[in-house]
Design brief:
With 415 residues, the chain is α/β, with parallel strands linked by helices. Helices cover 38% and strands 19% of the residues. Strands 2-3-4-5-6-10-13-14 form an eight-stranded parallel β-barrel, surrounded by four helices. The structure holds beta-D-galactopyranose. The site of beta-D-galactopyranose (GAL) has 12 residues, from loops.
């Protein structure tokens, strides 16, 4: 008989979402405006998304049936504080109902306070690139903590500060669609760090029961030829830029060194890096997928072993780790099932062989949803959503995940 490959007692199994990607009905934030301006690849918008705002009860019931015992979701700032300093009690009540429902369905809520979207009033003041951005964010944090904190199991202050700044200010893929705006990028990261630190301090006082962290995106970058010094330098430089933000006194600081009770890790993939003298604009770094490796619909290399590597790298920080996002864009659900088995095996190895204190896995995502600039083309969900009727249908991968969650272990290799 194959040996049991069990996860630690109390391991969290669930999925992650973000308000704008699933709720629908949002028209007061920067992403809505970006959609109206044609920022989305297929001309789509999140006007409807998955209509989760109205269907959260059914959605949570489905997740309970699928054995999830936790759920990561974000509270939409533009709903709760539609204009500066004015809070909408009806929306706060809505989120109380949402979190209460999760609790009733036996799922521990991890609440993200900023997942890529910001209210228009904040955007019009210059958004995260403007001075005072962190101060403008704090009243929202305070209010949410006061009104909803008792229902929150864990806080995630900011989702992927590194991705947010790069996509919005260097690559132009996210609003405000700036390209190569290095000063903006730097200011955004500095403000996000301040916002995180201030939120951390605030939440530790108001909701001491709930661990606080942020979701850090670790995109791996490995030297194309490990024996070439310049490739090693290219990989190091690329990672340094992606993994740090301006800390105290403007010095670069690792995002994972921020004040936190746990590390939230979003890990999807990575690339190889080679020194390339013809690319001064990209800091002489050429990035590419390892040849011959399968890729997802996003053209991201599928290398489950990288999960163990990034987990191992986090070990010296000495904090519990929650995998706050991991998943795959594909219409081929068999590929997703294989990926789940493989990536979870790597998580299990990191725990049992390497001693990394991983406490939970939030799959990205529960249901196919609005994938930012890509619209609805990228299918990351365990549950399919019919775009015409919005009917939900769990995929076989959802059933596989349910079996793993229920048994808190991986199936034997011959199963
Ligand atoms: C992350 C992001 C999620 C989701 C995912 C898949 O960067 O936090 O909102 O879009 O990528 O691309």
């Amino acid at each position: 008989m194959a040996p049991e490959r069990s996860f630690p007692d109390g391991f969290l199994w669930g999925a992650a979402t973000a308000a704008h990607q699933v709720e629908g009905g949002l028209s007061n934030n920067d992403w809505w405006r970006f959609e109206q301006e044609g920022g989305i690849r297929d001309g789509g918008s999140a006007a409807v998304a998955c209509d989760h705002y109205n269907r959260y009860r059914e959605d949570f019931r489905d997740l309970r049936r699928l054995r999830h015992n936790c759920h990561r979701l974000s509270i939409e700032w533009s709903r709760v504080e539609p204009s500066p300093g004015e809070f909408d009690d009806r929306e706060l009540r809505h989120y109380r109902d949402v979190l209460s429902e999760l609790r009733e369905q036996g799922m521990a809520p991890m609440v993200t306070l900023h997942h890529f979207t910001s209210p228009l009033w904040f955007t019009d003041r210059g958004g995260w690139a403007a001075g005072g951005a962190a101060d403008a964010f704090l009243p929202f944090v305070r209010r949410v903590a006061a009104e909803l904190g008792d229902l929150v199991a864990m806080w995630c202050t900011i989702n992927e500060p590194n991705v947010y700044a790069v996509q919005g200010w260097l690559l132009g893929e996210f609003p405000p669609a700036r390209r190569a705006d290095l000063r903006g990028w730097h200011r955004v990261l500095g403000n996000l760090r301040q916002a995180h630190e201030a939120a951390y301090r605030e939440l530790k006082v108001t909701t001491p029961h709930a661990p606080v962290g942020l979701a850090f995106n670790q995109w791996l970058l490995l030297p194309a030829h490990p024996r070439k010094r310049r490739d090693r330098a290219a990989a190091r430089t690329g990672r340094l830029l992606a993994d740090t933000w301006p800390g105290r006194g403007g010095r670069l600081e690792k995002i994972t060194e921020a004040s936190a009770d746990y590390i939230g890790l979003n890990h999807y993939s990575g690339q190889l890096a080679a020194f390339d003298p013809t690319r001064p604009g990209e800091l002489f770094i050429r990035r590419f997928n390892p040849p011959g490796i399968p890729t997802s619909d996003f053209d991201w290399a599928i290398v489950p072993g990288w999960m163990r590597q990034v987990l191992d790298e986090l070990k010296p920080r000495g904090l519990p780790v929650y995998i706050t996002e991991s998943g795959l864009a594909t219409t081929d659900d068999e590929l997703r099932q294989r990926f789940l088995l493989d990536v979870l095996e790597q998580v299990w190895l990191a725990i049992t062989e390497d001693g990394v204190d991983v406490r939970g896995y939030f799959h990205w995502t529960s249901m196919d949803n609005f994938e930012w600039a890509q619209g609805y083309a990228m299918k990351f969900g365990l549950i399919e959503v019919d775009r015409a009727t919005l009917a939900r249908r769990p995929k076989p991968s959802a059933q596989l995940f349910a079996r793993i969650a229920q048994s808190n272990s991986l199936p034997g290799r011959s199963d």
